[in-house]
Amino acid sequence: MPAVHQEALEGLEFIEPDWPAPPSVRAGSTTRRGGASHPPYDHLNLALRVGDDADAVSENRRRLRTRLHLPAEPLWMRQVHGTRVIEAECAEADPVGDACIARSSGRPCAVLSADCLPILLCARHGGAVAAVHAGWRGLAAGVIESTVAAMRTPAREVLAWLGPGIGAAAYEVGPEVREAFVRRHREDVDAFVPTRPGHWTADLARLARARLARCGVAAVHGGNRCTHSDPQRFYSFRRDGTTGRFATLIWIEAPSPPPPGRRGAGLNRRGLP
Asked: How far apart are CA 221 and CA 228, in angstroms?
């Protein structure tokens, strides 16, 4: 396996959320910088099923683990634009799903995207985290609602971060997309702006915020990075067609062991726990 060059590790960029998550929770999105893939997947493509060389993807994933000091390989799912939620601790190999939940340290949750909206969720107490892949189909079908329910945390105690996704100005859709949202929630019509006959721009971040609000999740952050308008940093299927995928990850870090001089701090006067 090729060595990890220091310049490659330094070039790997990780965008961390600006949210009040507990210190034990680590999260963020990669960009296309700092990897081994060649055009049109340059450079840090983390997806195996987009036509890139498998060895390059394996090296990119190794660099990711090294750069972020991940406790294990992330749970890479086969995303199908559905609503299935995977429990990371008991997931089978190569699971099919579009959301992942972890309740303990050891297994990072991850979603791959190149315009679809990645969403991270975190319980304020740090006992549960989730990563959600939300394209328009998954949003309309209820992937957010399914994930919030599966976290088994009161919605008011859930934090959300919207990662890099295609911005409304670049995302023109047809009537089937608009109808999928508006027929269930008439107020979603405000997320669609007409452009030409039978076409509208769709604001995925706004639609996601509305669904989170209907679930009772009020603490929502992010949603201001557009993949389509930043080709130096992000992959975009709408812009490029054949391209790579970046990852949005979240995990719970294991507690640090106590300093050697503090090993007895948890004992009572008799030396009993």
From this structure: 20
β pairing state of 99-102 and 85-87: parallel
261: pLDDT confidence band, cut at 50, 70 and 90? Answer: low
pTM score, whole prediction: 0.90
Instruction: Answer whether 45's CB lies under 8 Å from 60's CB.
Output: yes
With respect to residue 211, please indicate whether it lies within any of the assigned structural domains: no
pLDDT (0 to 100) of residue 55: 98
**Distance in angstroms (rounded) separating the CA atoms of residues 49 and 245:** 10
Within a 10 A sphere around the Cβ of 173, how many other Cβ atoms? 18
- pLDDT for 273 equals 37
Rounded Cα gap, residues 32 and 114, in angstroms? 10
Structural domain total, the chain: 1
Q: Are 118 and 111 in contact (CB under 8 A)?
A: yes
User: Helices H, strands E: what count in the chain?
Assistant: 7, 13
Crossing angle of the two packed helices 204-215 and 143-151, in degrees rounded to 10:
40
Asked if the structure places residue 4 within a domain, the reply is: no
Give the CATH number for residue 18.
Answer: 3.60.140.10
Asked if residues 236 and 243 have their Cβ atoms less than 8 Å apart, the reply is yes
What is the β-pairing status of strands 172-173 and 199-202? antiparallel
DSSP strands (E only) in 163-232: 172-173, 192-196, 199-202, 219-222
Determine the 3-state secondary structure of 227 from DSSP: coil
Query: b/e per residue, 26-57, with b = 16+ CB within 10 A?
Result: bbbbbbbbbbbbeeebbbbbbbbebebeeebb
Structural domain harbouring 37: 10-152+159-166+221-253
